[in-house]
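forwarding from the other thread:

> can someone predict this with S-adenosylmethionine?

sure thing
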Amino acid sequence: MPKLDDRLKAVAVQIRSSVHADIGSDHGHLIKALLTAGRIQRGIAIEVNQRPFENSRSTLTGLNADVRLADGLAGLNPGEADSLSICGMGGELIARILQSYPDRVPPDLVLQPNRCPEAVRRWALGSGYHLVDEQLVIGRLRYQILRFQRNHACPDPAYASVDRDAALLFGPLLIRRWEPQFRDVLLDEYRYLNDFDRRTNESQHRLDALANLLQSEPPHSNGLDG
Ligand SMILES: C[S@@+](CC[C@H](N)C(=O)[O-])C[C@H]1O[C@@H](n2cnc3c(N)ncnc32)[C@H](O)[C@@H]1O
């Protein structure tokens, strides 16, 4: 898939549908890569700002894609897309965009918050979307790529038998998989926050949650010993 960094590559492999909308398309590379790889038949790129809207339009010229200048889901009709991505924004903004037009949110979502993924997980829990996959990609930041599917039938099983607070902050599926790279990211953040003399309530809360997770980590050695 041309021109995608590891973060957007990890997003792209989660998407396979007929019509896909990307909100905040900026350069338009994600939709282009999805179309040229045959992962989608039609793309809808939505941008709120003029310059990135024009960049998307230029990237997607000649491809089966609409490029729209609009604020989030205001640019998408109900039922128009099978799937949607929102990448490279804060989690609160992603949640706000989704909350603004609940009836326009497609059944399949891939969301990549640059920060505050808990806002996205909280939105999904309250809106009948189940978390079906979480990936961690280490780049300029530590990116979480979250995939959701609409399911109003039952509570999200991703949160069964994990601490809800830690799961919202760090990811229930990532915690269950407990891969070395994920554990190292948690341990780095624990050490960083632990070195602070004065912590905000929020950073103290994260530190406590990290300490609990790392102390109760599954079978291998306790990360807090070293
Ligand atoms: C940091 S860029 C990320 C671009 C691309 N999605 C990526 O991950 O590489 C965020 C883009 O989202 C656009 N954006 C922010 N809020 C938006 C909204 N409410 N509706 C549509 N686009 C928005 C910005 O103009 C910007 O181009």
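The radius of gyration is 18 Å. thats all i got for now
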